[in-house]
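Archive entry: two folds, one per protein. Generate the first.
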Amino acid sequence: MTDSPRASIVALVVSCALFMELLDGTVIATALPQMAHSFGVSAVDVGVGISAYLVTLAVCIPVSGWAADRFGGRRVFLTAIVIFTAASALCGFAHTLSHFVLARILQGIGGAMMVPVGRLVVLRTTAKHELVRATALITTPGLVATVIGPPVGGVITTYASWPWIFFLNIPFGVLGIVLTLLYLPHDDGGERRPFDATGFALSGIALAVLMLGLDDIGSGEHLPWAGPLLALGLALGIVAIRHGRHTAHPLLDYDLLRVPTFAASVWGGTCIRLIVGTTPFLWGLLFQVGFGRTPFVSGLLVLSCAVGDVGTKAFTTRAVRTLGFRRLLVGTSLLLALGILACAFFSAGTPTIVILLVLFFVGVVRSLAFTGINTLAYADIPQPRMSAATSFASTLQQLSFGIAVALAAIVLHLAALAHRATTAEYTVTDFRVAFAVVSAIGIAAALNFAKLHPDAGHTVSGRRFTPNHR
């Protein structure tokens, strides 16, 4: 373990990589029409670049833990930043759709290794009692990136041109390379396990097919293909899980779910990520389609959530140590459900200050929840299994964010079925139904975390259970 200041620097380096990846993934959607014009194709065709990136992430993330053990976390993390940065430049210089898609695939390979391995480096260099603070440093940029991405993309496409969306990554990437060389410690990796080629093929194809099906639902394109793709992906996923449970060195270690704190973080964290993934999508549509606000004003409203995210991180360590993981996560899940439910009561006449305060509140609560979830996941994982845990958790995180947008689209579509005879695609009532459904997911997360022992994760939180703290 490294000293506290150096561990904080390591966490900040990794957080910058996470910010770069998530910002890139969220800004591109706003540039699709401009890119389509540049390539001489339709905006729907350019969407294949988004799909290619997401599918590559899903396929390659499970390999990240094995690669870090085999070649060393620092080396893999550094290589991933180089690949991601170089691929970003290639995306910006692409003159045809095919070149752009190939560059996005290369970018996906770098992204798949960059964030999970970076998180693993932090886990290996941070003492247990410092893990809450390190996790807060890692998660903040990612939460902010998901919120500010669309307005940043809008500004770039309005006042510059779409290649600058990708060129923006180059200075961040160069800075990440320099900081990695200066501050990330050398390591020899972990246990050098045999590569599970069968597990890689099964999980890779299953995840790729699932992501394609979810992307079809979320985009509204190729809907007839979505059902068969999801069915095939689930079937292959079941086969992959059975293989993983009966092989000595599986690529994805399902036995990790026997660790209560890790399992609670996985299932409850999936619920929270569904909420985090659906809300920017719903907010953006509600403010623009439902209330007639401009994209710029809509982006400014959503930014209040990011302000809540960032402003809370200074208090996360104290919150975990004061409340413990069970109280914190049950409480934040319920408060998050309440905040999302409040969004269902927005109308065109709702004062702007009320909307800003509600979104700020949601940002504060989800910030606390994410820090608790991402720290609890590794509280009871021994060092030799850290790489397997990061691969497993990162794979489910990627899948849950894919499910989130599809879920929002499905709920809105089902709500809209009640007024097919009208000319409006979505009404404010449809959004109210969607927010109510998303709010219920927060209650499901609270029920999951309520099963934790009061003493859960005390080695990390520093708060032990006593009879007076039930």
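Generate the second and append.
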Amino acid sequence: MSKAQKYRILIGGGGTGGHVFPAISIANALKEQLPNAEFLFVGAQGRLEMEKVPQSGYKIVGLPVAGFQRRLTWKNFTFFVKLIRSMIIAQGVIKKFRPQVAIGVGGYASGPVLRAAARKKIPVILQEQNSYAGVTNRLLAKHAQKICVAFDGMEKYFPVDKILFTGNPVRQDLLLPEEAGAKSYANFGIQPNDQVVLLCGGSGGAGSLNDCIMDALERIGKSDYKLIWQCGKHYYDSAREALASSGVKNVLLHPFISEMNRAYQVADLIISRAGAGTISELCIVGKPVILVPSPNVAENHQMKNARSLGDKNAAEIVADDEIKIRLVDRVENILNDKEKRGMLSENIRKLAIPDSADRIADEVIKVLEQ
């Protein structure tokens, strides 16, 4: 296979960082091996991919598609209208771009364009991030040549002969060299000898986690550790008011942390939701973790993701409805137990798959060779 050949590769999907960042990582891995390849992303209008994909240097087309509401609502009428429009646009994209392979990373935006590709006999490869397969990928599975997964037991959802265990691709700049530590500590205004807890509820924040911290500010203020608190832009004003009125000085509030790799570098303990992409990042970071799975997801899949680590003693799990009772106690117990921190760190590192994007890229190249 000639690396000079100009292959056309389509990547469909998005909606959340858990879909977008793996998609970009796969494209980057393919670009390394196929520098002349042409890429086109297809996502959902108004979603994260429409900002992040162009920032990464790739073209993207946005579809008007939206998610189906599980409750009875007038939005489901507009869902069908948007779906039909998206299918028409997707067919036009396939006809104009003429990809030689189509990669689906999940999310409702991948449905119309991957189905359009399959109808034109274009090879399809899917990447499923979660331990509970998304509806779109389950519907597309019959069209796929290979399905790249990150969790065991996915034969419940997909034909076993199509499944490849590749892990989830993560951002390439996740780990910083040790010499970058001084700048990372300075960025957050903390000292290298400080004990640091990082709380991140995702880019949009997490209401229940934020409520828990606001309720516990007085207790946290009496502790010896520093808390880096990413609260999300939506919750920032209320969190800032609560922090100001408490007078607590060891909590460092951020609406959003753009350089998450620096936050990971300084953290001694991380509190996080349990999205699949986040879990894959945390395995590579290798720090002790408390996972608080979001209950507001389909089929409670974040709890399933979390248990895949908890069952291997690679993370602590606190249920969302128990955090006000248990979370701060669990933080203090882990910080005071050096042996436990070492065990959690060692076990989570064993689950890391740092070359996941390259594994998927290799499978795409095999399809192109055929």
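Annotation attached to the second fold: The chain has a mean pLDDT of 91. The chain is about 45% helix and 15% strand.
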